[in-house]
Structure formats: structure tokens, C-alpha cells
Inverse folding.
């Protein structure tokens, strides 16, 4: 039972980490907390369901188009809703909160309250070291999540865009003085943040179907990951996601599934008591 | 190269600069002197576009900088070494320098410029892969200057180079700057008046947001009023 819960935890944890990276990215670059983050996750799930199931596209192509679609929507949201609010973080907080409610209502109208599930990429199950059989779809989700996270970190480290993001996250004004158009960087950073949520969405939707309101707990968990890992630390964010995923599933296996979210906050409170800046967070001087 | 005419600058609703006139010619070294809060840094901010003048013009080679964003001004060839250095502490020395070469004018010549910067500050070469946050204050200042030079600026603005540095380190950095050559014009803000006059050809004196004096640095050095007010002699 331990090994199974651990594996479950890792699968979910990777997806949490992926979602949380999007939050962390947007907070880092533009100091905006996107309350509609979970709704972008859900939208990607719906998109991939729509393209793959209803239009009969190849699941992989459907996923890629879904992520690209959410990325573009992210750009539009930044341009229309977030950009006019720069200088007052409270407005963007309220606006994205409203956006999340609006999106949830649209999903309810369009897709109905029922869970929707895009087709799986693989079938069957694999014998894990003779301990238990594990669904191939979940293993594939784990692999895909790891791959996207690795790609994201490589992008941060190796490309000009990645360096721009890191520079602007550390000192926005200095980045602007180094010739970076931070207004445009905001737009693409926000789009990329939404695309990370979308990637998590398309990866996990074949395992956990999407419903109109399923984005709220996802976003909540992502915020907890970010705080747990330490604001502004991308690797802390990944660790935070994995810790939450594993703790949640071990707790569910050994104590009760009903307390799933309680474990998450227990961990958060414990970590913040000992390290107020989070696991990898640095205290501002 | 740089012409500032009748510039009024506000921070919020508070006016900090009144009718500033200032010119910097090609290959010149100009210092701006003044005490704390005189408006020296605000003047820098007005040139780099961080503060937008309410009145007057700032021009770089006959091109008005009015209405341009800071990043556009950087692309035109002005680079700032900010007060407090502000290196990207979470990035390596190499990455910091590469960020400096981000503008189009710097990127194609990145390798060549990097060699020149490392030649100027050999201490940085030994720490290329170290995090910038682990450097000493002096090394961070070298890095901040190196980063600014990486964009191949025509005009280098240096804000409070000596602040918080040991005199020996400051001397070393100023000596390196003297070796920059005529390609880079320098406008520097400095609280240490003696140092500033020693390393500049001409200087302006700013008091309470107004320019109250100017002249050749050697003349100012011998001016009894200046000596009394700023050099304590």
C-alpha cells in the first residue's frame, strides 16, 4: 500500500508542480496572483476533450492545440484585463477572481455539470517490481509531467527568453534598464504561466476528468505549493508540489481520504512555522 | 552627445529638479557633484527614462528621448550602472554579463566585448560561474560596470560608484575606468567630490535640485568655495 500511495503521490505531485510553476512564474515576473489559474487548467482539459473526443483528432495533437489555445487566451487576458491594472496589485487580484467565476459559469453552460474526460493515450497497466499493477495512463502522465518541467527549466537556463524572465523576476526595473521590454515580457510571461496550467490540465484530464469547478482546488493547491517551496523559487515550487502530492496520498491511504486537504495545510503550517520563507525561499533583505 | 535643456522632474507630486541644463560632449568625462538628496540620482533617472521630465528635453545626438521607455533608451546606447549596483544575485557572473549584452547593439559582439570587460576587470574572470550574490561589494560593482559595458554604450552613466566600498577598491575601479578609452563617454554621479574631480574633465554642481555651478574639474579642485563646502579644507 505504501508503494502505491507513494507512486500516486508522485504522479499528482508532478502535476501540482507543473501548475504551481505557472503561478510562480506570473508572481515572479509581474507580481500578479492569477485566481483564474485553475480555470485555465480546466479549459485545457475541456479543449483536449473537445478536439480529441468530439472532433476525433489525434490525442497528442489535441493536447498541443489545447495548450496553444490557452496560451493565446492568456495573452489576451493579460492585454485586456491585467495590463490596465499595473501599479495596483489589488485590481488584478479582483479581476482574475471575477474571471474565474465567469469561466466556471461558461463551462457549466457549455459543457454541463458532468465530468468530461478526454481519451487516454495508452491502455493497460504495468507490473511495478511485482508490487502492484499501475495504470499506464498514469505512468505516461508522470513521464509527460517530468518532460514538460525539464523543458521549462532548460528554457529558463539556456534561452534569452529564460534569462529575461529570471532577470525581470529579480529586479524588474534593472531588467528594463538592460533593454528588456518588460511590458511585452509580462504578456508572454502570463501566457506561458497559463500554458503551464494548461499542460498540467491536458496531462491529468485523462486520469481525473474535468468539471466546471474542479479548477478551484487545483489553483488552491498550486498557491500552497508556491508558498511551501518559497516565493520566487522555481525549484522550491517543484519540491513543494511533490511533497504535497505524496503527503496527501499517504495521508489518504493511512488515515482517511476525507482529510486529504487537511494534510496539505498541516504541512504548510509546519513548514511556515520552521521556515517562514518556505523551503527554498530567501528572506528579503 | 547628450544635451539636457530646461528639465523639470517630479517624483510623484514633489518637484525634485528645476530647469536643469547640462551637456556632455563626445569622449568627455563629466561628473555631477552634490550632497545627499540634491537630485543627482533623479537626474540619472530622467536620462534613462525611469522618470519622465514634465518640462524640457533630453536629447542623445539630436534625437529626443522624450516619450521613450527605459528599454528603448538603452537600445539607443545609454547604459546605467545603478546606485547600489543591483546585480542579478540569483544569476551567475557570466549570466549577468550576458544580460548586459541583451540590447541589439551588444549581442552580435558579445564574445569580443566579454573579453574586453574581463580584461578590464580580471577579478570577474575568475568568478564567471559563481552566483553574483556571492561576490564582494567591489566585485559586484565591477560586475555592474561590466554589465553596463556589455551593451557597447556610447554613454555610460555611473551612479555613486564609491558608495559602501573600501577606498582601495574604489581606487582600483576608477583606475580601470580611466583605461576605458575615448569610445565610451562617461557621466558620473559621485558623493566623493575629490575622487569625482580627479577622474573627470568637467563637473556640474547640483544643490537642492538646481545646477549651481560648473567648470573644469581642475579649476573646481582649486576653487576655495568648493574646497570649503565639499572637501572640508
Amino acid at each position: 500500500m505504501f508503494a502505491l500511495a507513494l507512486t500516486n503521490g508522485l504522479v499528482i505531485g508532478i502535476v501540482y508542480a507543473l501548475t504551481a510553476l505557472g503561478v510562480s512564474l506570473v508572481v515572479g515576473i509581474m507580481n500578479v496572483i492569477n485566481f483564474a489559474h485553475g480555470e485555465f487548467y480546466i479549459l485545457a482539459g475541456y479543449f483536449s476533450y473537445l478536439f480529441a473526443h468530439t472532433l476525433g483528432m489525434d490525442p497528442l495533437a489535441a493536447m498541443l492545440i489545447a495548450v496553444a489555445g490557452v496560451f493565446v487566451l492568456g495573452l489576451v487576458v493579460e492585454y485586456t484585463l491585467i495590463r490596465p491594472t499595473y501599479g495596483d496589485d489589488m485590481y488584478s487580484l479582483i479581476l482574475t477572481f471575477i474571471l474565474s467565476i465567469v469561466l466556471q459559469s461558461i463551462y457549466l453552460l457549455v459543457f454541463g455539470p458532468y465530468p468530461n474526460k478526454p481519451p487516454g493515450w495508452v491502455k493497460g497497466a504495468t507490473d511495478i517490481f511485482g508490487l502492484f499493477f499501475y495504470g499506464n495512463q498514469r505512468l505516461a502522465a508522470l513521464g509527460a509531467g517530468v518532460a514538460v518541467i525539464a523543458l521549462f527549466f532548460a528554457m529558463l537556463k539556456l534561452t534569452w527568453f529564460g534569462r529575461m524572465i529570471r532577470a525581470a523576476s529579480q529586479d524588474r526595473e534593472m531588467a528594463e534598464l538592460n533593454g528588456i521590454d518588460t511590458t511585452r515580457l509580462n504578456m508572454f510571461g502570463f501566457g506561458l504561466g497559463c500554458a503551464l496550467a494548461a499542460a498540467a490540465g491536458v496531462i491529468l484530464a485523462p486520469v481525473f476528468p474535468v468539471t466546471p469547478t474542479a479548477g478551484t482546488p487545483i489553483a488552491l493547491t498550486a498557491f500552497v505549493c508556491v508558498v511551501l517551496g518559497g516565493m520566487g523559487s522555481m525549484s522550491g515550487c517543484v519540491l513543494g508540489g511533490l511533497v504535497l502530492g505524496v503527503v496527501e496520498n499517504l495521508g489518504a491511504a493511512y488515515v482517511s481520504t476525507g482529510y486529504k486537504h487537511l494534510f496539505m495545510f498541516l504541512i504548510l503550517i509546519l513548514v511556515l512555522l520552521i521556515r517562514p520563507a518556505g523551503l527554498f525561499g530567501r528572506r528579503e533583505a | 552627445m547628450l544635451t539636457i535643456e530646461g528639465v523639470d522632474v517630479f517624483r510623484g507630486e514633489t518637484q525634485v529638479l528645476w530647469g536643469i541644463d547640462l551637456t556632455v560632449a563626445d569622449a568627455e568625462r563629466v561628473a555631477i557633484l552634490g550632497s545627499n538628496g540634491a537630485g543627482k540620482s533623479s537626474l540619472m533617472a530622467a536620462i534613462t527614462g525611469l522618470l519622465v521630465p514634465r518640462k524640457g528635453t533630453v536629447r542623445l545626438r539630436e534625437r529626443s528621448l522624450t516619450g521613450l521607455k527605459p528599454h528603448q533608451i538603452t537600445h539607443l546606447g545609454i547604459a546605467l550602472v545603478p546606485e547600489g549596483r543591483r546585480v542579478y544575485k540569483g544569476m551567475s557572473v557570466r549570466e549577468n554579463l550576458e544580460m548586459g549584452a541583451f540590447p541589439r547593439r551588444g549581442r552580435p559582439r558579445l564574445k569580443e566585448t566579454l573579453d574586453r570587460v574581463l580584461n578590464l576587470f580580471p577579478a570577474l574572470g575568475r568568478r564567471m560561474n559563481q552566483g553574483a550574490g556571492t561576490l564582494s561589494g567591489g566585485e559586484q560593482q565591477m560586475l555592474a560596470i561590466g554589465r553596463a559595458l556589455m551593451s557597447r554604450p556610447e554613454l555610460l552613466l555611473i551612479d555613486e560608484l564609491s558608495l559602501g566600498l573600501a577606498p582601495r577598491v574604489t581606487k582600483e575601479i576608477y583606475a580601470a575606468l580611466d583605461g576605458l578609452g575615448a569610445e565610451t563617454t562617461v557621466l558620473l554621479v559621485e558623493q566623493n567630490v575629490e575622487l569625482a574631480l580627479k577622474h573627470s574633465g568637467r563637473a556640474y554642481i547640483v544643490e537642492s535640485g538646481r545646477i549651481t555651478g560648473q567648470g573644469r574639474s581642475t579649476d573646481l579642485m582649486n576653487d576655495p568655495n568648493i574646497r570649503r563646502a565639499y572637501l572640508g579644507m
